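Researcher: Here's the sequence for the chain we discussed earlier.
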Amino acid sequence: MSDFAFDVTTADFEQKVLAASHQAPVLVDFWAEWCGPCRVLKPMLEKLATEYGGRFLLAKVNSDENQELSARYSVRGIPNVKAFHNGQLVDEFTGALPEAQVRAFLDRLIPSAAEPLRLAAQQARLEKDFDTARALLADAAEIDAKSEVIRLDLAELEIDAGNADAARAALGHFEFHADDKTRLQALQARLNLMAAGGGADPVELERRLAAHPDDLAARLQLADALALAQDYRAALDHLLAMIRQDRKWNDEAARRRMLDLFQLMAADATLNALVRDYRIQLARTLN
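Model: Thanks. This is the structure I predict for it:
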């Protein structure tokens, strides 16, 4: 047994779990001798505790022998893994999950050593210093090569920089877990906008529209470019203008693009009010 995995009883739970969780997250595995799935999960957790080298601790509680603890923490089925941090229960799962899902659970719980680099890269991206952001993410990936979040960060950076092929490469050949799928879908939607012409120069499109206000193809292209730049309000305004001008144009392309944008914006809860507002405006325009 490693220094990072140990048995715990009711008598030492306070010291080995609650107090220890102020130094590192502690996973408490409630198990029993008769439980088949427990015999699958427990050695996997022990292996991961050793692999993570103290970034989390594993406390193993025999639920039959420590029924008071099981009752205190509402253990109704085993194996039941409960995560403690700073003396508080913060997360849990029940059942013998596959290793990939257990790793995803741990990665949500344990701050990555690459996190400061990720945060610095985000700031550089917002300042449009793409070279610096790219270098920081490369360093972060060396520290945490399996991180899905770093891969998503890189794809978002390349989309912002207008490099569709590099963004697709960042997303390709990688199996994303459920927790990242919403963000993945949003990034893929932005790539679709680029493919539809959203990568065009908005300034040039504005000049084109100023000279030819009825150029619906240019207005749609401009809406895509604005949406790609995440200026959703302006993009939606152009699409509404197209619908008012000719709602049937190009097989109702403007209405369909608005619905696509609503789906894309749904990935960001801060945009919910904007989506509701423009759904109402779309309904009024169509009626």
